[in-house]
Design goal:
This protein has 19 helices and 66 strands. With 1423 residues, it is mainly beta. The two termini are 86 Å apart.
């Protein structure tokens, strides 16, 4: 076996890149890589002819793609012979396992496999040639850890050497780089899998070290069997514990001279490095420390213990005389002077009887500068920066296998030799004139006595016992934990005071171990391990320091009272059931049949005409749409008239004719950025048996309703037109409107015009409205109107799986209420050709913004010379008194009390007019008067005018001087300002780059300040690269471009005259900013939806400041929000002031538009964002491959009748760039009434209805009139401020939990007065008898059956009959009377059903109070 020095010299590792080490590291992950075989003729014939004894082997190295840095150590396989080409096999088999563990869990950490051919030249010298290399990806792009399943990979091999990866042109992904050339018909087969079995041996293997299972690792036992793979299931060797006593260190020539020379050299080094002059006494020694740890030749087994050494004379003052004599006698032979002494016993666990295991000693000096050095006052926070640590000596001791106790003296080492801690060590004395004997001691020695802990008693030393008595109340501390101070008045048995506590230097300048300490798992401890609990405690305390006065006795394995165990979360499925996307609002429709079109045309609906009054071309809604944006933009008919024509609302043929059907309906929707529309009420006119077709009859057409509620005699249907053209759209918005038609789905809600209850919802795609150069186009649809009912979450416990990828919604019932016949049209019109100015041009689509044109300010004039006038530099002249109020007050202030100047004048013109009049009066007085008094008056008036003029000029000069700095700064700011406009939609990130140039000749640290949280810098290089790939930009990407400073603004460094691309993204998540002014308009006239709302323009500013806060550049961003697409609409009715908790199940990703075919790695991760920050929205990871994913919503409902609307964006990329779907959620808060009832039995309750300010005629409506009845039934008067009782009777037809809506509506004004949400909790009845019949499915006559019922009472009683399926079962008599004890025959009439199957029909027999007496069950089999 190799000794420690040989093992240490042959296992030197290259550390990872410093930038990578600054990133937070995760737990280390172990891997096993099996290199199986190499396919293809890699070794050329020319190599075989030049070299002899040609062999082939593989070399593996770890590589960081981000920083282009190789690290770790290159590992190579054993050589395999290569035969000449004529007999060369197509495969070279290796089958060698490779093991390693690394905490660098990043996709850019890869393994590079190089194929090397080696042989001998003709002169016998060896030569190795690189034949190609491959790249093995260790970690995937997913943030979670790699899967536990093995990954069989076939690596493609590339021409050249792995040194080509260091070239700056090879950017990630390097496999797709154009400079990488693949070797044809050559590959390497390998298997990569996580290897958790290696975790117990982490302390024996350094991180990023590639080792083979056939390699001998110190501390591991050989493998069982013939394989020899010791790392497949590693077994640890038995460890022992050593005790070191009487440790002291001597230095040459003496301790005083050694430390004096050390301080002098450090002072001179400080002066040479530009730190300023320091006195020799300015540095002082704070501590002398000895670090002791077990090293296996590969790395430290555990973190070294840090002990404090003190000079011998200090020990002599505090220790007993016997100990002083003992130390003195042992140190005389070495130096004769004082030494550094360790005052406590040293316990060294985890030692293994192996030649490569050794105990490493390291002597460190901690120095600090006293307060006030260099003229800087020391503060509490700056003490840590004043301390510094230097390693001066180190030594290594390998115990003999036969030794159990004794003493040893080791020479200390120093200088530039490699050492186990991989740090710089203080120089050693020159050895040119020293003999071999002197060389052994001139660098110093460490002397100690050692003893081995016997088996069975790990903590009992073999030498004479050294008992230290401690008070019974003192708790023991772990070796690496801080000491517990003794109470005052208690001393140790050696009568020495407690040593100093952990100083600031120990905490701030503790040594960093090259091998990261990891805690061993309890399962990995050997049964015969001498110190399992102690070793585990030392490993788990990362960075712990053992002080000289710490209690080194055995600690109890039980945790202290302050240790809290973290509970582990168990897999838990939420109780609330998922709602399947697509079951609420269906966009599915069908093409109207010819019979339906003929009936609609015969009904007299107005025809849609184009601009030439010709019928519009009709297209089939099932035809594919070829969308060409260039053709839309080049269309001469730039104005588009979008027509929506509501024709008919048909009833479903399978619907129960006894079920309620609305008399009037109205529709609500929102088109583009026009205001939300609520159509007038439309009458449903029934057609008498007309229009029957294969898909069912057109039962009701729509007709306008007059003001008095009567039928309007005009044309049937309702038509709504939107005129969209350059007069209403902003510059450049035409492209967004075209994109809106191509991608958007128009969501329509159908409401009952009388009860104001939601009938159902539907959706229609608008892509067929794209004209694509045609003058006009129209399309007719038949759309399903679907109503959705949700059961209460407490009643839902399970669901059904309909098949692969299909899930049946749990607790969600969808019912097709009817078919809406709708016609959409787009009619093109010519628009006026008006000259466009530069301000009306569309915004630039470029995603690279340059500020080159912003630095050309000529100055001196408000208008630019020799070119067109820039609007922003044109200033309109204004009166100074209108600009500055203070200046106006000074100008119009009186000159002297009692003067005749203008007093209180409000305009500058009045003051000028008065001055002119004063001058004219003065001139006339001079001409007319010849006396001296008149002349004196004129002179005085003239002086007064001159004084007034001088005063005005002084005020104007003061005003100009005050505003000069602001005007100059504003003009200079315009010179560095760049303006840019973008269009943004909800949830979509708009990416662009700003080209920033440093105009100075010196480096500048630029701080980027952003005033809007929606505008942010792209800090991650991977995110930057993703956006550039999407935008197809080829500008450079820089790693670690910005310096992040927590909550402060990021910074970057620009060299002189350097240009950098600064990545930005703008993303809106708040819907209030997008549709702040989109409110419904009242008194909507038919056919006039109103003008489009102008979405509020947003502004954002990015300021780039150089050193000293000077502005370097400024970016003004103008954001024009655009309407966003809505893929799904959810409408929930929930009790007020409670939490709505819903799970919405996502559809399979393969069904979404734009999903790639054959997506590798399974489904992408799902991320969600909500427009309302008060809504909790999250998603969970998939439980397994192919498992569905749910989006969980938790929303707080407000008081009734408040409605909360918000949007949910679903992303399938980790950077949240573009949403895959956007959902709109409406939450209606209603008053809740809980009812517990029995199926088929009436339950009664009362509700209190309070009156409003005025008298109203109201009527109560319910969503389920067959199950819930109300008294009074019809219209009744609600007095003002009065109270009216509503008597409610509930007889449910279905068991379970459901919601029933109850509205009270003003019949005159069709306003909602009150609303309740009745929450039913229905129990099934007890079945007393069961029957079964068989019927033929289809258009049959049904069946007539009879059953008997006996009155169990001795007197006459009246009974009522009810059924839970009235459309399938009818009674000849709904009520009957029978005498006591008599039998009555009940006639049953079963109606036919179209489809085959089974149905269980319940017959409820209730008494006169509608209480259930008995329930029969009839099972009907339709064949």
């Amino acid at each position: 076996m190799r000794d420690w020095q040989e093992t240490f010299d042959q296992n030197v590792l290259v550390p990872p890149h410093p930038q990578r080490l600054r990133q937070p590291l995760r737990e280390s992950t172990a891997f096993q890589c099996v290199l199986k075989w190499l396919d293809g003729p890699l070794v050329k014939q020319g190599v075989l002819e030049v070299l002899s004894e040609v062999g082939c082997h593989l070399r593996v190295s770890l590589f960081d793609v981000t920083y282009r840095h190789f690290f770790g150590r290159t590992w190579k396989t054993t050589g395999r012979p290569v035969e000449p080409l004529s007999r060369q096999p197509s495969r070279i088999v290796f089958n060698e396992p490779l093991y390693f563990h690394t905490p660098l869990n990043h996709p850019n950490i890869v393994a590079v496999v190089e194929v090397v051919a080696g042989g001998r030249r003709r002169d016998g010298t060896p030569q190795a040639l690189s034949c190609g290399f491959g790249i093995l990806r260790i970690f995937s792009n997913k943030p979670e850890s790699p899967s536990s399943a093995p990954q069989d990979k076939r690596l493609r091999l590339y021409h050249g050497s792995p040194r080509a990866l260091l070239h700056p042109l090879l950017q990630d992904p390097i496999e797709q780089n154009k400079h990488m050339t693949v070797i044809e018909n050559c590959s390497l087969q390998c298997t990569l899998r996580p290897h958790p079995a290696l975790e117990p041996a982490f302390h024996l293997l350094p991180e990023n070290l590639l080792v083979s299972g056939l390699q001998h690792i110190p501390g591991l036992l050989p493998a069982h069997g013939d394989t020899g793979d010791a790392l497949r299931k590693p077994r640890l060797q038995r460890s022992v514990t050593w005790y070191l006593d009487d440790v002291f260190v001597t230095l040459y020539p003496s301790l005083e001279k050694f430390e004096e020379e050390l301080l002098g050299l450090l002072t001179s080094d400080h002066f040479r490095e530009g730190g300023g002059p320091l006195d020799g006494g300015a540095l002082e020694i704070s501590e002398r420390r000895l670090c002791v740890g077990v090293h296996s030749g590969l790395g430290f087994v555990h973190r070294p213990q840090v002990m404090v050494l003190v000079p011998e004379r200090e020990v002599a003052l505090t220790r007993s005389a016997s100990f002083s004599r003992k130390v003195g006698s042992s140190s005389k032979a070495s130096s004769g002077n004082q030494a550094l002494v360790l005052r406590s016993r040293l316990r060294v666990p985890e030692m293994v009887c192996h030649p490569a295991f050794a105990i490493v000693f390291q002597l460190e000096y901690v120095l600090n500068s006293p307060p006030g050095v260099d003229g800087n006052a020391a503060s509490v926070t700056s003490l840590a920066s004043l301390a510094c640590m230097h390693t001066v000596r180190w030594a290594v001791w390998t115990p003999s296998p036969e030794a159990s106790s004794g003493s040893v003296t080791l020479p200390l080492q120093g200088g530039i030799r490699p050492n186990p801690l991989h740090c710089l060590v203080y120089k050693v004395p020159p050895a040119s004139m020293s003999s071999d004997e002197v060389k052994q001691v001139e660098s110093g020695t460490v002397h100690f006595q050692y003893s081995l802990s016997p088996d069975g008693h790990p903590d009992a030393p073999t030498g004479p016992p050294r008992v230290e008595r401690r008070p019974s109340g003192k708790m023991a501390t772990s070796p690496s934990g801080p000491p517990v101070p003794l109470p005052q008045g208690l001393v140790t048995s050696q009568d020495s005071p407690v040593g100093p506590g952990l100083s600031l230097s120990q905490l701030a300048a503790s040594p960093q171990s090259p091998t990261r300490c990891r805690s061993a798992k309890p399962s990995s401890q050997q049964p015969d391990s001498p110190e399992p609990s102690q070793a585990q405690a030392e490993f788990s305390l990362e960075g712990g320091i053992s002080h000289l006065e710490a209690d080194l006795s055995q600690t109890s394995p039980a945790p202290g009272p302050c240790v809290a165990e973290q509970l582990q979360e168990l897999p838990f499925a939420p109780v609330h059931a998922p709602i399947v996307v697509g079951a609420q609002t269906r966009s599915s429709g069908r093409t109207p049949s010819r019979a339906t079109l003929a009936l609609l045309q015969a009904s007299g609906f107005p025809e849609v005409l184009d601009a030439n009054k010709q019928p519009v071309e009709a297209v089939n809604p099932t035809d594919p749409v070829k969308f060409d944006p260039q053709k839309e933009e080049s269309d001469p008919l730039q104005s588009s008239e979008i027509v929506l024509q509501f024709l008919a609302f048909s009833r479903v043929p399978e619907d129960d004719r006894g079920a309620p059907w609305p008399n009037t309906v109205y529709f609500t929707f929102q088109f583009y950025r026009f205001p939300p529309v609520t159509t007038p009420r439309l009458q449903l006119l029934e057609l008498d048996g007309m229009g029957t077709s294969r898909s069912g009859p057109v039962s009701h057409i729509l007709a306008p309703v007059g003001q008095d509620g009567s039928f309007h005699a005009g044309s049937p249907g309702f038509r709504l037109s939107y005129l969209v053209g350059p007069g209403l759209l902003r510059p450049g918005e035409q492209r967004w409107f075209t994109r809106y038609l191509a991608l958007q789905t128009l969501q329509l809600d159908v409401w009952d015009g009388d009860s104001l209850l939601l009938v159902g919802s539907t959706a229609v795609q608008m892509k067929h409205l794209l004209r694509q150069g045609r003058p006009a186009v129209q399309v007719s649809h038949e759309l399903e109107v679907v109503a959705t009912e949700y059961e209460q979450d407490a009643m839902v416990m399970s669901g059904d799986v309909a098949g692969f990828g299909g899930i049946k919604p749990i607790g969600v019932h969808t019912v097709v209420k009817g078919w809406l016949h709708l016609t959409l049209a787009n009619v093109g019109h010519l628009c006026e050709q008006r000259g466009r100015t530069s301000s009306s041009l569309p915004p630039s689509r470029s995603q690279v913004i340059s500020n080159d044109g912003a630095g050309r300010f000529e100055g001196g004039s408000l208008l630019t010379r020799g070119g067109p006038r820039r609007k922003r530099n044109v200033v309109q002249a204004q009166k100074l008194t209108d600009v500055d109020s203070e200046l106006a007050a000074m100008l119009f202030a009186p000159t002297r009390p009692g003067g005749r100047g203008p007093q209180g004048a409000g305009q500058e013109g009045d003051a000028v007019r008065r001055r002119k009049l004063e001058r004219m009066r003065t001139v006339r007085l001079q001409e007319a008067a010849g006396e001296g008094g008149c002349r004196r008056t004129g002179v005085l008036a003239l002086q007064d005018v001159r004084a007034q003029h001088a005063r005005d000029l002084q005020v104007i000069a003061a005003y100009r001087e005050r505003t000069k700095a602001q005007s100059i700064a504003s003009a200079l700011s315009l010179a560095i300002t760049t303006e840019h406009s973008i269009c943004a939609t909800l949830g979509t990130a708009e990416f662009f780059e700003f080209v920033l140039r440093n105009p100075h000749s010196t480096p500048q640290t630029v701080t980027v300040e952003v005033d809007n949280p929606e505008l942010s810098l792209v800090l991650d290089s991977r995110e930057w690269r993703h956006f550039k790939d999407v935008a197809r930009l080829h500008t450079p990407v820089e790693e670690d471009m910005f310096r992040l400073r927590g909550s402060l603004a990021p910074q970057l460094l620009l060299r002189p005259r350097e240009t950098a691309h600064i990545p930005f993204k703008y993303q809106i998540f708040s819907v209030a900013q997008v549709s702040a002014d989109l409110g419904p308009e009242k008194d909507l006239e038919p056919g006039s939806p109103g003008k489009p709302s102008t979405m509020p323009t947003r502004h954002a500013k990015a300021l780039f400041r150089a050193g000293g806060g000077r502005p370097l550049a400024e970016l003004h961003l103008t954001v024009q929000p655009q309407p966003h697409a809505v893929d799904q609409v959810f409408r929930f009715y929930h009790p007020e002031l409670t939490f709505l908790k819903k799970a919405i199940r996502l559809p399979p990703w393969r069904t979404l538009p734009g999903a790639p075919v054959g997506m590798p790695g399974g489904e992408p991760p799902v991320h969600v964002r909500c427009s309302d920050p008060s809504v909790i929205c999250e998603t969970q990871k998939a439980q397994g491959p192919g498992e569905p994913r749910d989006v969980f919503l938790k929303v707080a409902s407000g008081p009734s009748p408040e409605t909360k609307d918000f949007y949910v964006a679903i992303y399938r990329d980790r950077w949240l760039a573009t949403p895959a779907q956007i959902w709109q959620v409406h939450l209606h808060s209603l008053q809740r009434v809980d009812v517990s009832c029995v199926m088929g039995q009436r339950t009664r309750l009362s509700l209190v209805l309070r009156g409003t300010q005025t008298v109203r005629k109201v009527r109560a409506f319910t969503s389920h009139p067959q199950e819930l009845t109300i008294d009074p039934r019809g219209v009744f008067t609600l007095p003002p401020h009065g109270v009216q009782d509503l008597h409610v009777g509930v007889r449910p037809r279905r068991a379970g939990g459901r919601f029933v809506h109850l509205n009270v509506v003003d019949v005159d004004f069709h306003q909602l007065v009150a609303s309740w949400l009745v929450c039913l909790s229905c129990r099934p009845p007890l079945i007393s008898k069961a029957f079964e019949i068989t019927m033929a499915a289809g258009q049959g006559k049904g069946a007539h059956k009879q059953i008997t019922y006996t009155n169990p009472y001795p007197f006459r009683r009246t009974y009522h009959l009810h059924s839970d399926h009235p459309q399938l079962l009818q009674f000849k008599e709904d009520a009957f009377q029978v005498e006591g004890g008599e039998t009555y025959t009940i006639d049953l009439q079963f109606a036919p059903r179209r489809r085959a199957g089974e149905e269980e029909i319940l017959i409820h027999i209730n008494d006169h109070e509608d209480k259930n007496e008995e329930t029969f069950c009839v099972k009907v089999v339709y064949q």
